[in-house]
Amino acid sequence: MRTDHAQKDTTRREIIMTHDISRRHFLKAAAAGALGVAALGLSGCGAAAPAESTANPAPIPDAWDLETDVLIIGGGGTGVAAAVEAAESGARTLVIEKTSIMGGSTIMSGGMMMAAGTHWQQELADCGDDTAEDLYQYYMGCYGEVADPELVKDMAYSSADEIAWAEDCGIQYVTCFAVKDVPGYSQYIKPRIHLPGDGTTGTAGIPGLGWLHVNPIWARAEAAGAEIKLNCPAAGLIVDGNGAVIGAEADDNGTRIMIKANRGVVLATSGFDHNEEMAKALSSSQYVALTSANGSLVGSAVGNTGDGIRMGMAVGAGLAGIGGALNVSLNGNIGRDPTSNLGGPTTGITVNKYGQRFVNEWTQYGYYMRACFSQDGHICYTVTDQNAVDREGGLAMGFSTDDLSAEVASGAVIKADTIAELAQAAGIDAQGLQQTLDTWNADAANGVDQAFGKTEGCNPIETGPFYAARVLTYNLGSLGGLKINLDAQVCRFDGTPIERLFAGGLCTGGWCGTFYPGSGTAVMSTVHWGRKAGRNAAAQQSWS
Q1: Which of 173, 188, 186, 78 is nearest to 118 (CA)?
Q2: Could you tell me if 260 and 66 are in contact, meaning their C-beta atoms sit under 8 angstroms apart?
Q3: Half-sphere exposure of 403 (CA within 13 A, CB side)
Q4: Rg of the chain on CA atoms, in Å
Q5: Full-prediction pTM beyond 0.90?
Q6: Contact assessment for residue 68 and residue 514, using Cβ atoms and an 8 Å cutoff
Q7: Residue among 48, 54, 49 at smallest CA distance from 28
Q8: What single-letter DSSP state applies at residue 395?
Q9: How many CA atoms lie within 13 A of 234 on its CB side?
């Protein structure tokens, strides 16, 4: 079998969805089972069972349409990494991808990976003292109790090896840079974000460079014998009488097929980014990003609808790390040096609807956006003055324009001669905003932000006209998913593994918390857990 795969076309971004697992699956509750693990999912499918079946896992079908050793569901960053390891282990390897092109959200990303202790850090950022332990401590400071320390440490301590593996695939890096400050964890921050390049792109236009990461990895997988079927979404897993996963049902360009997986199945389907029902149940911040009317966008691959999570839950899988989202601010550093890493606004301040500051605006974007989301009604505004606009043009409010005239005309930015008028137009408490500005201006005059320790853009806001803009979310996907162990085995809530079922990347949880710690973490997860999943699936003895 030989099938086409995505061309190395840096401009091709459209993903065509060809199949949608029925919304009814998500609404059907389990008839029984601890914690109701099937309440969000699909049931196991047998040869005669339709995709929307809620029957118990069916017996092995009488006939299979396709046979492979390792079946990988999802052709994004996790899927291609898993394919390399499975194929190079000598296993027949088949990837099925629901859309018409491969790469998923990874190919739409910057292709960056966060890692500690690499030669690239020394060569590109003069950083020779970074350690995996510092990366682990940084991650745990961001994640808190939601994360599994063993999974977090495993990924952090393997990060340099994953960079070396990517380099072996042919990926080169042109820049290493650091996240912005996360209060309380500054001592653990180093230039760890590895940005790929091809000798011509440099650091310009980070979004969309993901092909520099995906294509070399898939080329290696294909050279090892891995194959891919596009427009072939999975409809459900197939299990034997003992609960082991032995294959999957899929829709191959409109034809239902049963695929036999002799050694194992890898779920590599990313998160529930575009599934409103799952988001409402599992992540309020993802749900708001999907449904709010304030201009929020979801910029991940449209095929990310939680398929793998639901299929895993249908055969008994637990969940881990649920509740977060990968959010950045459209009012941040769009149009600035990409290595500024999309924090909050450089100039001005961010206030809630009561006119109160609540965060150091010049912090890591995940931290900043979590603070914004925590405000009443999720309503926040950036506020600045004419001096800032004169200095920076539209960038003072996060717009890559020479001035803000177009944004004011469209209503994206509010402009007023006085603070009281600005507050009234924006719906901000005028007295609260004035008190906040009085404190801010006094601190700015002394060069010290006594409330939150901001060190960049500490300029008074006192020269009218004044400007305000609603903080808008640009969402790059959900966080949290299937529970896995150190071998990338999908586990039940009690930690026992489901035989022959593996998973990695953003359809899994436990290695990440409820706010995203910085660029390159997600892609690193696709490589680290994808490789483990593919390698360990291939290591299983054939069941037939």
Answers
A1: 173
A2: yes
A3: 8
A4: 24
A5: no
A6: no
A7: 54
A8: G
A9: 34
Phi-psi category of residue 393: left, alpha or beta, with phi > 0 → left and psi -120 to 50 → alpha: left
Neighbouring CB atoms inside 10 A of 161's CB total: 16
Is 345's pLDDT higher than 90?
A: no
All structural domains of the chain, each given as residue ranges with its CATH number in brackets, are 38-107+226-325+478-538 (3.50.50.60), 113-196 (no CATH), 331-471 (3.90.700.10)
What span, in angstroms and rounded, lies between the C-alpha atoms of 356 and 353? Answer: 7
Pairing of strands 473-483, 508-509: parallel
**For the segment 43-68, what is each residue's pLDDT rounded down to a tens digit?**
333 333 333 333 234 457 889 999 99
Tokens standing for 352? 């809630």
Alpha helix positions (H), 301-418 = 307-314, 365-373, 386-392, 405-410
CA dihedral 309, 314, 319, 323 (to 10 degrees): 60
Give the Cα separation of 283 and 301 in Å (integer). 18
Q: Rounded CA gap, 73 and 482, in Å? A: 14
Q: Per-residue pLDDT tens for 165-220? A: 999 999 999 999 999 889 999 999 999 999 998 766 544 445 568 999 999 999 99
533 burial via Cβ count (<10 Å: 0-12, 13-18, 19+): buried
Q: Kindly report the backbone phi and psi dihedral angles of residue 350, in degrees, each rounded to the nearest multiple of 5, phi listed first.
A: -115, 130
Structure tokens at 256: 């239902």
Determine if residue 243 is left, alpha or beta; phi over 0 gives left, psi from -120 to 50 gives alpha, anything else beta: left
CA-to-CA separations, 195 to 115, 203, 227, in angstroms, rounded:
11, 7, 28
Cα–Cα distance measured from residue 345 to residue 334, given in angstroms and rounded to the nearest whole number: 10
| Residue 392 contacts residue 399 (beta carbons within 8 Å) | no
Question: Given this model, what pLDDT does residue 38 score?
Answer: 34
Task: Report residue 341 CA to chain centroid gap.
Answer: 15
Report the length, in residues, of the chain. Answer: 544
For 3-31, the DSSP string reads -------TT-----B-----HHHHHPPPS
Q: Which stretch of DSSP H or E encloses residue 503?
A: strand 497-503
How do residues 113-125 score in pLDDT, each as one tens digit? 999 999 999 999 9
Structure tokens at 27: 């609404």
DSSP state of 241: T
The number of C-alpha atoms within 13 Å of 514 and in the hemisphere containing its C-beta is: 13
Bridge-partner residues for 228, per DSSP?
95
Cis omega (within 30 of 0) on the bond before 345? no
The answer to whether 275 touches 26, Cβ cutoff 8 Å, is yes
